[in-house]
Design brief:
Blueprint (H helix, E strand, L loop, with lengths): L13 H6 L23 H14 L2 H9 L9
Length: 76
Amino acid sequence: MGQEIPPFLIEVPEAELADLRRLLQTRWPEPETVADWSQGVPLAYLRELCEYWADGYDWRPAEARLNARSFFRLVR
């Protein structure tokens, strides 16, 4: 049985990255009633995280750093 181990690159389509902007359309719940994580992720933290992924994070440099390394996929 032959197995092939071809290299591959990480290539995320621009449309998928643009789709992250949908995070900015999130309808947020009412703020939590406690100042800790006992009711789940604090709303302010989650909003900041979503804004970062939608508008702040630049995937292309990360993609380039990953592709500078060798990745392989086992094909059976």
